[in-house]
Design a protein that fits this description.
The structure is a single chain. This protein is mainly alpha-helical. The protein is built from 23 helices and four strands. The strands form two sheets. A two-stranded antiparallel ribbon has the order 1-2. β3 and β4 form a beta hairpin. Bound molecules: zinc ion (2 copies).
């Protein structure tokens, strides 16, 4: 009975009986791994997609929604991870935790993420062994590496999501690009890569939240009209019935289908319709009826809902006109829709990383704060508390910011040392700052284990300066320096244990 391997566990059991549900999944994945290659998965999805025009249209629309939701998910995850890495010492705590403890939180992450929506649940098929409990829990690095692979370079909505790399899928994608794939094949691959990345992001997010003891993330899911629901992904739908009948008999299969339908209705209850105009996106709280675009509904059974005539009008020219009543193409949905209104971007304080400098999650978090608050010079954590540093002297601030820019965009060790020494030196003798905690923080942000020695060397340089200027302020004129350090003990020194 080869078909048994297609059995997909029941989604509603993810929360009800997580252990059982998960071991069913691990069985399915083991069985599937032997017979399913990326090309078999893509081809099956492409075939069902091509066969039904209305479902194809709904799937394309859904794909674009998933792309923009994934962008949002990754921005939120990047912010969360930054907080956890910087504040909650996540990395050390996770590595020190036992496999059992890690496994407990990973299972919570898996079952919570897979309960968000049907398509995410079934996307475990596309993750294979990568998302099995035994694989994730055994070595702490596995989850941390997955997490780092999906983090964005800055805490902001990206224009496109960052897809999780994977040797087999990436090789398949390269082969597809060399051929001349049709729309169905392109859609099938893009949809699989997006969904698997999205599922993994949600699993990791929920796992982290569970581990550091904060509330699990909640994800709003749009309500679909039954008629235009793109439906269950191919495995559950196309092969599901005969497989389940083979396993449970006709009566058993019927009973299971009934259970699944009830669970689907239950999920629908928590969902709401949203206004299709990107500048509004209002959720329908039930107080008024949203109206749908008639042409789209009549021609394509495509449900485009608007909360008001104003929103419909506002959406027409920039977005809807080009697709109204016409079948969608893969090209039209292969990127998330541009945000409306376009973000008025203030120039960020800190530019993007240069060359192949890879920022640590803690540094991304620091930069996120600095870009949000242009007045800040640095966010320093002395113990648990965060304190904002800003340097009132304009010349000192300009010198600091120039050095900070180089440190944060290139990871230049010299700049990091000069800046770190200055931060330490400026906060000496102030009771709310703890030197050791600041050095630890900077070491982590720049992944710079030799930082204490580098700071020590900067202190030696300061001691040799005839005016006792810290290296950061070496370009300052002696006259300005005298003003700068009025009331300051310029002979104080940063002393670290080496
Ligand atoms: Zn609206
Ligand atoms: Zn329309």
């Amino acid at each position: 009975m080869a078909a048994v391997s297609f059995m997909i566990p029941q989604m509603q059991n993810a929360l009800k009986q997580p252990e059982r549900w998960n071991s069913e999944w691990e069985n399915t994945i083991r069985n599937m791994e032997r017979r399913f290659t990326p090309s078999a998965l893509v081809n099956s999805l492409a075939l069902t997609f091509a066969a039904q025009p209305l479902r194809r249209d709904a799937s394309l629309r859904e794909h674009q929604t998933i792309l923009s939701n994934l962008c949002r998910t990754q921005a939120i995850l990047t912010a969360t991870a930054g907080t956890c890495f910087a504040g909650a010492n996540l990395e050390e705590r996770w590595m020190k935790a036992s496999p059992d403890l890690r496994g407990k939180h990973i299972l919570i992450g898996l079952s919570s993420a897979c309960s968000i929506a049907r398509n995410l649940h079934d996307a475990r098929v596309y993750c294979g062994r990568e998302l099995t409990l035994s694989h994730l829990r055994s070595d702490g690095r596995t989850v941390l590496e997955l997490l780092k692979a999906v983090l964005l370079p800055e805490v902001a909505m990206p224009e496109e999501p960052k897809l999780l790399p994977h040797p087999a899928w990436d090789a398949f994608a390269a082969a597809q690009a060399r051929g001349s794939p049709n729309d169905s094949e392109k859609y099938a691959l893009a949809s699989i890569l997006t969904l698997r990345t999205k599922l993994i992001c949600h699993v990791i997010h929920a796992t982290l939240n569970s581990f550091v003891g904060v509330e699990l993330p909640t994800v709003a899911v749009a309500k679909y009209n039954k008629k235009n629901n793109p439906g269950e992904p191919f495995l559950g739908r196309e092969f599901g019935k005969s497989v389940v009948e083979g396993m449970l008999g006709v009566a058993g299969a019927k009973a299971q289908a009934k259970e699944n339908k009830a669970a689907w209705k239950e999920r629908q209850r928590g969902r709401t319709e949203h206004c299709s105009y990107g500048g509004c996106s209002k959720a329908n709280d039930g107080s008024a009826k949203f109206s749908r675009c008639k042409t789209c509904w009549d021609n394509m059974q495509r449900e485009i809902l608007y909360c008001s005539a104003e929103c419909q009008k506002a959406d027409w020219k920039p977005q809807h006109k080009s697709i109204c009543g016409k079948p969608l193409t893969f090209e039209a949905v292969s990127k998330p829709p541009p945000p409306i209104p376009p973000p008025s971007k203030p120039a960020p304080q800190i530019g993007p990383a240069v060359g192949n400098y890879e920022r640590s999650p803690s540094l991304v978090y620091q930069i996120g704060w600095l870009n949000l608050n242009p007045k800040l010079d640095y966010v320093v954590r002395g113990g648990a508390e965060e304190t904002n540093l800003d340097f009132p002297d304009p010349e000192a601030q300009a010198l600091f910011r120039r050095c900070r820019e180089k440190a944060m965009t290139t990871g230049d060790k010299q700049s990091i040392a000069i800046m770190a020494h200055f931060i330490c030196w400026m906060t000496l003798d102030k009771p709310r700052f703890h030197l050791a905690a600041i050095v630890e923080q900077l070491k982590k942000e720049y992944v710079f284990d030799e930082l204490p020695r580098a700071i020590h060397e900067m202190q030696q340089r300061q001691n040799k300066d005839p005016f006792r200027r810290p290296p950061l302020l070496a370009p300052m004129s002696p006259q300005n320096w005298v003003n700068f350090c009025k009331g300051m003990n310029v002979n104080r020194q940063v002393v670290l244990e080496l």
